[in-house]
Structure formats: structure tokens, C-alpha cells
Design brief:
By secondary structure, the chain is an all-beta fold. 0% of the residues lie in helices and 50% in strands.
């Protein structure tokens, strides 16, 4: 059974940091393009950070220099380190594996976690 289990969301003040984790089933981990999507209330889902099969990463312009996507292959886990958080980063964040487009333009994936809420207050 395919599973994506996310954790690490929460509420922080602007300028703070959070680290999201996504533990994935071994069956799908690193077999596809992986990344993080987010969706703010009333807005479209958007790609935040992507890592392809070769380990190449890419980021949305809005998070470059502040967010870092990484992997731990021993744990089949995908991470998103978020620093210098801003109120506009407030959204539900989703771990996504099997992105239909391996760029930050991706909006959907074959597999997606249940989401973890990130709230940044000013």
C-alpha cells in the first residue's frame, strides 16, 4: 500500500523556521519526480520545490534562498526546510511523488500526502 506520511507543520511568527517531513513507501520513493506543493486558502495549488531522479532541485521564485528540499534515502523521507518564513507562506503543504511535470509548474501528482498546515503570523 502506497503511503505518504507528512509531519512538521505548525504556527510560527514571521522570520521563523519549520521543517516538513514526508515518509514515503519504499515502492515509490525516488522512482519518480518528488516535491512539495502548497495551496493557500482561496488560491490555486502551486509547486514550491522539486527534486528530480538525478537529485537536481528547483524552487519557486517566491521561496528561493529560503527553502531547501532534501532527501534521506535510508529513511525514504523527503524534507522541506523552510527559513525566514513570511505570512504569504501560509498554506497547506503537500508532499507529492510522481509529479506530472517535473518543474515548479507542477500542480498535481500520482501520489500526494494528506497535507500539513503551515501558518505564519506577522
Amino acid at each position: 500500500q502506497v503511503q505518504l506520511v507528512e509531519s512538521g507543520g505548525g504556527s510560527v511568527q514571521a522570520g521563523g523556521s519549520l521543517r516538513l517531513s514526508c515518509a514515503a513507501s519504499a515502492y515509490i520513493y525516488k522512482r519518480y519526480c518528488m516535491g512539495w506543493l502548497r495551496q493557500a486558502s482561496g488560491k490555486e495549488r502551486e509547486g514550491v520545490a522539486i527534486v528530480d531522479l538525478y537529485g537536481t532541485t528547483s524552487y519557486a521564485d517566491s521561496v528561493k534562498g529560503r527553502f531547501t528540499i532534501s532527501t534521506d534515502n535510508a529513511k525514504n523521507t523527503l524534507y522541506l526546510e523552510m527559513n525566514s518564513l513570511k505570512p504569504e507562506d501560509t498554506a497547506m503543504y503537500y508532499c507529492a511523488i510522481g509529479l506530472f511535470e517535473c518543474t515548479t509548474q507542477a500542480r498535481a501528482s500520482r501520489y500526494r500526502g494528506q497535507g500539513t498546515q503551515v501558518t505564519v503570523s506577522s
